[in-house]
Specification:
Number of domains: 3
Strand order of the largest sheet: 2-1-3-4-5-11
CATH topology of the largest domain: Rossmann fold
Distance between the termini: 64 Å
Strand content: 15-25%
Order of helices and strands: HHHHEHEHEHHEEHEHEHEHEHEHEE
Radius of gyration: 25 Å
Largest sheet: 6 strands, parallel
Shape: elongated
GO molecular function: DNA-binding transcription factor activity; transcription cis-regulatory region binding
Protein name: LacI family transcriptional regulator
Oligomer: single chain
Structural class: alpha/beta
Keywords: DNA-binding, Transcription, Transcription regulation
Pfam families: LacI, Peripla_BP_4
Helix content: 40-55%
Organism: Neptunitalea chrysea
Number of helices: 14
Number of strands: 12
Length: about 325
Amino acid sequence: MNKPITIKEIARDLGVSFSTVSKSLNDSSEISEKTKKKVKEYAALRGYTPNQIALSLKNSATYTIGVIIPDIQNSFFASVLKNIEIHAKSYGYRIVTFFTNEKLKEEEESLKILSKGLVDGLIVCPSDETFKKKKFDHFNAIKNMNTPVLVFDRVDENLEFDSVSVDDYKSIISALDYLYEKGARSIVLASAIPDVSVGKKRKEAFEKFIKDNPEVEGIVLESDDNPVLQKMLLEVVETKKVDAMLGVDIESTSLANSVVAMLGKNYKEEISLIGYVNKQFNRLQYPRVSYINQYPEKIGQIAVDMIVDKIKIGNSNLLNKEVIETTLSIKDTSL
């Protein structure tokens, strides 16, 4: 097997200095575009790759970003993670990922491990149990360290870090406005995440809408136990006139859809459904569920942009909170 070519060998072959090659590969403004192009093309031709270990030692950096995800089976988190990895590579970073399975203890251990200098920055989505038990001490402890942290999706006032999320309140109001315009006057809100910050925010928006529109009957059904939530939905839809259902997460939306099928209800004619879905799977099924698009690919990309900026400029007390606007995608389950 041939040994990888070195900067010294590239310099010798091209008849330039070691410094010129190094600066060209790092896109230094001190080197002309013509020289940089020549060096980069030759380096690519000879299969040159930078020695990440040497770079890490030189810069006291790991070129690694830690990512903590609550549930890899959730398609939203899986899509965010995929785009974090793709975008991190474009910056020359790799990721190391921990899955907490929505458990507080797993989250605490993951943060403890990753905050010991193994990564240059952290991208985290807190677990359901963290919110349920209202325990944020492990996050507060990491604020005293030099590792930059960014929270995505499940932002909360107890988490004083940079963040990227969607406008959950506005998303629900937009969906309700649409249903109202189509004549819905009895609407059920279903939630499988009653303790999580996004679940609370979406419920808050629903309750405000019902308060502002007293002619609308609003029913809130919540449980993090799926069979229990399905039973609650079944009982309400079977015994009451329900014009529309709004799921605040992927699981509650799926359960609402299953209840419509179980009762043999006709979409558009008898009932409407809007919620959150696995977009890839939704394209392949019928009926396709109308949904709120959270743009997980954008969340992943922006999260990386923000954490890399924080790594490069150094950790600071100035917080940056990015909020992404969602859109409503109307499919087969609503007018």
